[in-house]
Fold this protein.
Amino acid sequence: MTLLELAKYKECSLQAIQAQIEQATGEHIPLKKDHEVSENILRTLVPEILRNPKRHITTPQYDRQVTTPAPEALCLGKEYDGIVDRVESYGIFVRIGKASGLVHQTELAWGPVYDLGRMFKRGDSVRVKVLALQQDGNKRKITLSRKQCIPNPWETIAESLERGSIIEGTVKKVVEFGVFIELVPGMEGLLHISEMTRRQYETLKASASKSSPIQVVVLDVNMDKKQIELSTLPLIKRLSVIWDGTDERYVPGKSHPATVVGFDGMRGVWAEFEEGVETLIPPDELQWPRTKSAVDWLTVGNTLRITITDIDKFNHRLLGSIRACTPDPWILADGPIAKGALLPVIVLERNVRSVKIVTDDEFRLLGEIPLSELSWQKSAEELESTEIPHPGERLKARIVVWNPEKRILKASIRRIGKNPWNDIRIGSEITGNVTEPNEKGETRILLENGLYGLSSEPGLSSRQGETIDFKIIGYNPYTREIRLSHGCISSDNRKDAMIRSFFAPDKTAESHKSRNNPDLIIFEGDSNFQKGILMSRNITFQGSPIALPFARSVMERIREGKAPSNKIRILSRFGHTQEFAVLGYDATELLKSDDLCECLNENVLYKATVLARTPLAVIIGVNGRYGYISARNLTDNTASELNVCLIENSENPFAFSEFAQELPKDGVESIPDVDSESIESFLTHEELSVIDDADRTVVEWTLFHCPHITRRNINVIKHELHLTYNTDSTPDLALFLRHQPNYFRENNFWLSSYIDKEGRTRIILYDRYDLVIEILVLQNSLRINEFSHDRNKSNAQWLLNHNRKAISICGRNIFLHEQFYIGDNFEAIGLKIFRQFDVATRILPGLKQVIRTLKEKAGVEYITLKKYLCYQEDRENALYEDHVVNVNAGVARIDTSLLANHPTALFIPGGSADCSVLFSENDSDICHVLIQVANKTVKGLLQETPQKQGYLLSFFHCHLDLDSLRRSGFELRRRPGTRHLKMQQGSIDNFVHGYNNFDIFEKLNNGTLTAPEPAMDLTFFDEKFNSVEAGNNQPLAIRKAVNNHDIFLIQGPPGTGKTSIIIEIIKQLSIIRNERVLVCSQAHSAVRNIYERLSGDDRLKIGNIDIEETMVPDDLQEHIRYLEQNQKLLSMLAKAPQNAPAIKETFLRNCDYTSSSKELFLKQHADLCDDFERHNQGNTPKILQIISQLHRSLSELGDGAKVFNDARHYRGLNVVMGTCIGIGMDAGLLKSGIVFDTVIIDEAGKANLAETTVPMQLGKKYILVGDEKQLPPYIDSEEISDFLGANSHLSKKEVENAISSSLFEDFLRETQHFPEESKVLLNFQYRMNPEIGDYISTLFYDGQLRNGRGTELQMCDLESFGQAVTFIDTTTAEKADGRNIAFEAGNPGNGWYNPGEILIFKERVLPKLLHAVSRNPELRIGIITPYRRQRSKLQQELANTPFYDCVYTVDSIQGSEFDIVVLSFVRAFAVRKDGRTVGFLDDMRRLNVALSRAKKKLILIGNLRTLCSEYAHSEAIIGTNQGPSPVSVFRMLKTLQDKTAAKTSLDLLRQHVQEGSIRPGHVFKNCEWQYDTDFAVFPIIIGGDRRWFKLRKTPALAKYSKPSELIDVKFIGFGENDGRAQFEYLPDVPIARQITDGLIRNITGQLSEWLDENETQMIMEFEDGSSLALEIVSRDDFLRSILNGTTSLPLFITEGKKCSLDKRSYANFQRSHHEGQRVMMKIIDDKHPKYLVVECEGVFGKVIRNFPLRAVVGRSYPGTIYRMCDKYVVFNLDKR
């Protein structure tokens, strides 16, 4: 074995196999293909080869043993024996000798091949047939077939299979929808899942890999589609007998034992009651709490009781429930479980918002614990993962939300214990552990209740880990911040002791006994006074008196000399000489060290320590401050600690303040609901996408601080408002409450709020009874600032006028308190109310308006389209108003209607009333009208009847008195056809604004569209999708479409198999996924095409609204007959009630119903007999009357009955089809109320937004198939012009873009929000020849469109057109006489046509087409043009040919295809800037459609000069500027012009010039010329062909020659700009004569001689030898420029034979040169002493002799331009 053979066997490279050998054996071998591998290496790497070499590898020696031919000897169609060389997923490679060929999987067997690896092994012998031998460069491709060597079972066996026959087969494959059974090798049938029991299916599924045998019954054999339908149900004994009695044995609501037989994914569990009787248990019916999957607690074979919920006898299925066998635990638990209960729970899972739980009791209820309810200490965001309960963990939780009706249970862990925050009181002492400082340097303290506090006292950070006592000196309940102090404890204890000592009874008695007054000190001997008195009341702190206990303490320290004496000051003097003084003492410095605590605030709860009690008050210490509680405000006179609130604050910390005790709360702490909304659930996706950061912060703050708020109750204030008022400032309110004390509790109020100029929040309350209250929000209260119960008061009216927006509050939440109320932070309450008010009245309405504005901006084109539809509706209504026909009395006569279901009509003679004005251009011979009869209007149909010279008027109402109507006369009006327009307007509103749950546009704007994942488990119905080319997107498109959740786009360029894709998607959704599908298109032809390809599939129930019989139930006509039979039956029973059983039997036997409702009708007849016999024998007349009345009602109902039955029929369809507008207009479909699972819209690029959204409203998800690069939606230019006249603010482009915009194109080009994964491009085309396909791909699809298998066979022979694509350029085309270029004719109003292109088609193309069709009549020819007038002209020319009906406009051919396409572009004109443009040809979508219709040949006829000119094109008149420009497309097509069918004259001339046989200057002799407008045309002989060219007419040609005379012309060359051939007429007269005749002005001549001494006249000789005497105008010019008559001079000759030098050459020289430029110059003369005369590029000049120059006359020398003048040039000659 060689190294190469070993590498192939191991399927790796030579380098890889070399590395494997070295690693396995340590042996290094050379890297050569033919190196022989040793046996040792083979034994190590591939021992199986040594055991059976022929089985595993074909060596050269083994090849020689097989007597097979060499590759070049293989014959097409012959069979050979070969060896399997390689097995791939798409087929096997078979070696025949040294040749190897591919047997594709479709050629392996006559039936499906599921597992190639199991079927074939390398080295197996197979017999194959050669199908194709192809040479691809150096490679030879051999296509083989195995199945062609074995008999086709479909030809030998299938025909012998009969319906009902029993046959044994083998299970080959089990899929979701059934089992494929191999009946004989190569032939399989489908045993659908509905044709077997679930037990059978599960058994077959379990043993599928064992190829289990099975007996089946043949239901149907379809030879065309090679399909066999099988069943096992007929083999089940007594199946029909069993199911006949199911409704008696299996009554819904009863339970029965059953055995589990299988599991069906998302659908549920299958169980069997008895053989043939099965039930499906949906997942929701398995268990009350779905805590685990069914497979976790059920196994196949389990026996359990199941309650029957429904019976489906048609499909032999029961629906059951396991959980229905047990009571609903939510109902049982409503009582034992209540809000606040403590329950054991088990954690199931956790997510970002909550922990899912199930109660650990007999009820097993599902619930959740919000993360915010886990801890008092931390918020949900601060929790660590370890602090959240894990799945399986058991714990206790308290119920906080309990709603058994909605099955909602929410629990809390943190509410099991007491809320530690409720016990936080400023002034209370608490123990804490010192931890690390925070980023601000403050020390964090872990308190004994689990909360954290902060202290800014220095030195604490060094005591980390210590547990010490702290006092709470501050607390903010909203930020949850606790401020602590350790140092103030000792200071406060010292002051507390002082207060206790002061008020101690023994101390008081002692002070009374003492002769020394403790409140008085007398000072003597001071220099400022003789004696001074200091009293305790005059002791101050920061200028304010202090309390007596502190004053006595200061006085004691003064007596002891421990206080500074310099703080004594004189307050007043008294005595005769003012020698005595009253003294004061400033104790600020003395007491400053004791003032360590913060100030007190009103309406804050504090923890107070009772220090002393007196008969009038209790003395308390509060956070280092002191005060008293009046006995009247005291509720508990025994407690040592009290919760208090400040009433009157003394700013002096050593003075007493007044406090009040907190009122005790009744009952236990309530448990609030915690079901607050997050902002994501509170706002919609749209609102979240547009809300700004500031408003978002407000909403988030409001939701966080007001957990009761939801979107539903945002307009209701739930907070309690405790309002305080002062009777002095608001006496009216006090008086009002005295008379109506319960007013507030009995009424509801409106609430408004605003921020005043000072930044304070104000609240306005008012009601419907003129009561108005203004509330000022303060830190310590909600104070009523103003009250009025008369809104006529100016201030009250002002408040109402400026606060119109309001939300509501229940009066029971409003409490009024006189003077004060102890409560929470009122500023926070006011802020909550204001924020809620702001959210409800400003933010939410503002978001709605922003969204509406953004939607209208985003859908501005859609809104414009709606305006256009409204305009159409108004125009139709105007037509209805303007056209009225009066039919006079006695004119009409009763006649027979020509319409079905309308038996009678009125005939209106044509001469009596002109009814033609009621018909529009779009009507055929029928229009809808309104008939005015007395005071009512009746609908009718007006039909033109030319044979009767009048009109038939048919009526929908069958009870009209036509004779009275005829005699009295009536009025006819056209019934406006506006229903479809209103329907489209409504669909646009629903789409843009998201009404009626039509939210696809909202999802697009929000970026929330879901991209589908490919369904990789699909089994394709169409086998071709299993064997597509590598990289083909067809399977991907199907897999994604089937798994689509929102909207999915399939872009299908021409010929990519869009219809096949749609067919496959419909089958997958309807048959496999049991979805109801709506299929629509803008065109009837597309719908009809899909319907025809689906209609043969019996597995689908299809309705097409265009085909009436598919939409009408077959039992509709028998309904009336059924009622008549009931009437007949009751009559028989009434006559002989004793014979009821016999009547029943006979009657049922004679009924011959044929519709699908036969069984239902017979059963109802039988039930009627049984019911009559039991109950109604005495009520026969009444029953007969009821039946008769029902019969008449149904007869009169007419179309209404049809609609009712249609709706019933529609619900039985799984596929409904129709046009987009037709679907929306179908009354039966709309009244059925059907919502389709999927809506598929074909040709979506041709439907505008309104047409697309009409059917989309009926579905849940959408699949749009189309191509935005083909035909756009249709527009009517004339109607647009009229519309713009009424809407001048819109531009024409805006309107055209709106009307021609398709939803498919909008979504396809949306890159920001539309998922790229929701778009698929079908990238293989199967229609066009590869050459055509490559052009389409390059021009329109950026090269992404590839050619599929078989396109290379798209060829046909067409004489003179060897290439697949040919462009005939008419730029230089001529008629037979060569006089007319193929320019267009016509005008924009009547249309354009091109007679030249028609002539070229007739002469060059038509004969070839006729010849091709005569040889192959199957060829389809398409002659296409963009213009209707050109089509008419072509049809006139083709009237007597087979191609008369083969001429089309571009707009009529999308979806069509032809073997050969001829496209006439029409537009050809002289291009000028800002001139005419090509119009329609600027639309690349139309051009794409036109070019891509060709399968084999594409012939283009057009004027490339016009088409390729930029000035001939404007921006695309329809669509966007994306994609290739028209100019680039036509310039790319210009490369095809060398492939034209025949060379034009210009092409032929160019060819001969390139070959050198004709050169510029060549003279063509004796050419006969003719006139053609501004040109003369003449023929010349080129290569033996007579060709025509044009020559501009000159005065010389007109003077010296006449048409049809022979002239000489000289070929000059080709024009630089236009490339045209240029010729010059050569007159047959001397130049001198032409000058004399005034025909020549500029000429070159030589001076022959001077005629006078003054050198003013001379004789000039010209190039033809003629001469003429001329007078010199400027002698000096000639003397300077002409020397010795040796130079040819350029002359300009004026009238009178005067000449001068031709200055044009000098002017041209100056334009093309510049001073200093280097040039070559020729010496003309050197005789002048001062200069040389030279010539340079046709002008004369001189060189100044500044130095000796050596120059030879007649030679050229280099130099530079020194100066340029009008008449000469000065040069410098290089020094030599």
Notes: The mean pLDDT is 80. The chain has 54 helices and 82 strands.
